[in-house]
Amino acid sequence: MQYFVYGRDRAGAGELKASLTPEHWAFMDGYAEALIARGPTLTPDGEGTTGSLHIVDLPTLEAVKTFAYDETYYRAGVFESVLITRFHNHTGGTMWDFTNAVDGYHRYLVHTDDTPRPLTSPHVILHGDLVALDTDEHLGRAVLLEAPDAVAAAALADADLTQVHPWTFGGRR
Fold this sequence. Notes:
Elements (H helix, E strand, L loop, with lengths): L1 E8 L4 H16 L5 E8 L6 E9 L3 H9 L2 H5 L2 E11 L16 E7 L11 E8 L6 E10 L2 H7 L5 E5 L7
Antiparallel strand pairs: 1-3, 1-4, 2-3, 4-6, 5-7, 5-8, 6-7
């Protein structure tokens, strides 16, 4: 089962988060084979982080809760909140399968509350539906993509009620 795990940074936690990055990566190394996507969301200028995104394939809800709540940043109080949902991956691969990078484009996480829509752009890195943990309730979509700017990212994701977060590939895989 794939899960979408998104921790939103607590205000003022940037230095703490930066100091814990090596420990965070070591924790993630234990999940290397299960990771579908990972990386920080960024401030608009790209100089700071606003959150930490992971899409992970784990066998049980208990396993994903362990992943989310034993994680270094969470334990240290970096996150203001953590969103965990099931993730129905429409791309079928991982972020490491993406081969259409365009010079000058930026990467984004587009998080939307709207209904599923097919996406066929070569600039889509990964996309899928967000589904409640305990029911089949559709909670929205998450799209990882490349675009020249945030407005183009929202348009490419063909999304309503959209949150667009600058994002980058994370980790050392």
